[in-house]
Amino acid sequence: MDTLICNPGLDAEECIQCLVQEYPNSERTQCLPKPVIFLDFEDSLGIAMACMALCFSVVTAIILGVFVKHRDTPIVKANNQTLTFILLISLLLCFLCSLLFIGHPNTATCILQQVTFALVFTIAISTVLAKTITVILAFKAMKPGRILRYFLLSGASNSVIPICSLIQVIICVIWLGTSPPYIDIDLHTEPRSLIIMCNKGSVTAFYCVLGYLGILALGSFTVAFLARNLPDTFNEAKFLTFSMLVFCSVWITFLPVYHSTKGKFTVAVEVFSILASSVGLLGCIFAPKCYIILIRPDKNSWKTLKNRRDAEECIQCLVQEYPNSERTQCLPKPVIFLDFEDSLGIAMACMALCFSVVTAIILGVFVKHRDTPIVKANNQALTFILLISLLFCFLCSLLFIGHPNTATCILQQVTFALVFTIAISTVLAKTITVILAFKAMKPGRILRYFLLSGASNSVIPICSLIQVIICVIWLGTSPPYIDIDLHTEPRSLIIMCNKGSVTAFYCVLGYLGILALGSFTVAFLARNLPDTFNEAKFLTFSMLMFCSVWITFLPVYNSTKGKVMVIVEVFSILASSAGLLACIFGPKCYIILIRPDKNSWKTLKNRRGPGENRHSKI
Which domains are seen in the chain, by residue range? Predict the structure, then answer.
């Protein structure tokens, strides 16, 4: 009925069907041509993506120039010059290939998009794999005459790149020979528009490309993880490990988000994933090297690589002391912790305070506009509880900064556990409320009773009580305490909080993970329910962000030591809290502050489902 135009008669209506590329005007007396939509270079979203791609391309080109200029320095030579330049050039092409996804699609760009993406990313990841293999060979082939030494000197690890690339080329040739990508028109996502986009052709081949990249990334991560503790000032295995974690996190998040979006936003998600994963590789691998080359050139010397000679007559320094450079005197070790006067401590504290201020401002906006539809439609009480709990999530990260003591060691973990439990259980309560609101429309149904009684709100105290019990057991058996790390930095005393019972700590994280998984599942089921202010999609994406951060946290946390462990924990708290805040409240603030015309009951009533339009009289 939505594509008919009618001539009212005396007794009946005479209607004709509009063409698929047309839609009826509001009076249903004329067929109008549908506007053509795609991710355009003149669109704000397209401009933003293109600018990001070009900016990161320029940064990559600058880094490449820096490495070429300093190619004779130890930090560049020690990590295989050839592989470094190949990786930088492939990352430059990764950024530029995202531009193929923007603009009016045609047969050539549809094919080039996928083939270029597949090949340049394969070269990049296989280069990372080759670098990790080189690191392993460099430390396992020290003894003369060993076969591993031959492989190292012959550069055999470099052959990984053409071999891996050849396999991806074969996959692409099979894809193009059976069911290549082509231009497609989406008529259903936006009934009054024609969305032109590239169809993948063979979805199986597309996922074969992604799966192969995933296998390469997993292989690179595994090899780099094995080499992370090998000695060397310029051993980059730790950075390669983290870069692969970021890469895998981005593409694991990409899959469900890609399938839950439609139209030009599907293309935007793919472009964003390409840029995010490329930035992750660039930042994790090359930022530490650029820091040493440009800011700390004193560390970029062959002397740094050499071992100090042992003195002929030696005495053992005390554990809280270390020898001077001449090895003639024992000096007291400096005490190290994540201090408020440390640059990293200042950065983390400023981030926490800035996010706290932003959360407080958003809370003020929602209180001021509490009588508007967008605030009322998504349960005011739960919204305010969630904002207050997120405010405390940001503030609780400050407990991890400063000189540790018994009180702060206990407060860190207990406060973190409780405020995050309240936040995630509130999200769960909101998702249950969304389900009940749409499943309880018929009078007399028991679901309607649960909705009106606010039974879903009881999820918060029940979930919080379980976390309280876990924390009480933790504090009663093996509570956190102050500990001194003597081994991570031999010339320093690192004061830090020991978790006490590691099992209890992971029980707290596991329980939060169960709540997040439950919230994600319920929100995912409710994502397609009709309503202008249905926030299920935003809740789904917020839980994806939350889970991605803490899944990444676990291996990174376990592979770091000293105050870096504290930094990783604080960063994970801030990142996951910021993800919840942005995903859930960003779209609402946009409507409240920038598009108040959409914040009305009329807008809510006009968004009816297809079933309603089908039965209404034209």
Answer: 4-33 (no CATH), 44-302 (1.20.1070.10), 350-483+498-607 (1.20.1070.10)
